[in-house]
Design a protein that fits this description.
Blueprint lengths: L6 E6 L3 H11 L6 E7 L3 H7 L8 E2 L11 E4 L6 H9 L4 E4 L3 H5 L2 H9 L2 E2 L9 H7 L4 E10 L8 H5 L11 E7 H7 L5 H9 L7 E6 L6 E9 L3 E8 L11 H11 L9
Parallel strand pairs: 1-2, 1-4, 2-3, 4-5, 5-6, 7-9
Antiparallel strand pairs: 7-10, 8-9, 10-11
Helix pairs in contact: 1-10, 8-9
Amino acid sequence: MTDRKALRVGIAGLGAVGLDVSRRLIDGAVPGLTLSAVAVRDAEKARRALPQIGDMIALRSATSLADDCDVVVECLPPALFREVAISVIDKGRLFMPLSVAQLLANDDLVARARKNGARILVPSGALLGLDAVRAAAEGVVHSVTMVTRKPPAGLAGAPYLEKHKISLENLTEPLKVFDGTAREGALGFPANLNVAAALSLAGIGPDRTRLQIWADPGVTRNTHTISVEAEAARFTMTIEGVPSANPRTGRLVAPSTLTALRALVSELKIGS
């Protein structure tokens, strides 16, 4: 039996998801993975959350994580996305973005990754059925539609709402706040609709994937219903995700990220 060298993981950002994934890696949840470094804005706050920082875990700038990590997980505000992505991709590393919507605004990164021998790996996140969508997309897909319903707090502050002066205060019934393409929705709601971006990239693209977004005071979970009409199959899927400490992010995102990391080192991988 040959011992494989552990894959070194760097986490850019210790918000709700980054902190959860970091703690699981530290606890040894995935043999073959080690948390080597993190990048944060507030070092003292990070050390209070993870006392191992400065000892077994290095503290780095976000753009230097790839210097000594094999894979970098991005858990940052959208404005910081591109700089970090380029720093990882140009070093030929594995880049795992959670701000998936930013890939639609930075689609040159795929060609850049190809040129530098890097890979961009997108976790399923708070979405289901991406395997089925990807399989269907190997043939003819006629339409992909997603309807998202979120508690108003989960959509508050989105650029699209501010631009169009849509208020979510004191809602008493569901309000449709967006109806358009996945590209338009992901750019207008960059902290909310990473799932729409992932769905569009797995299927027929961001300009053909249709998206509706509802602010619904009657729901307590982030609900996504996906309908696909394809040559090989017709299917509809609904997931109701429990929000994390950050209401814009589902609690399933952190374990999904860990699952994607596990697939890098596991001897057995289920699903495409």
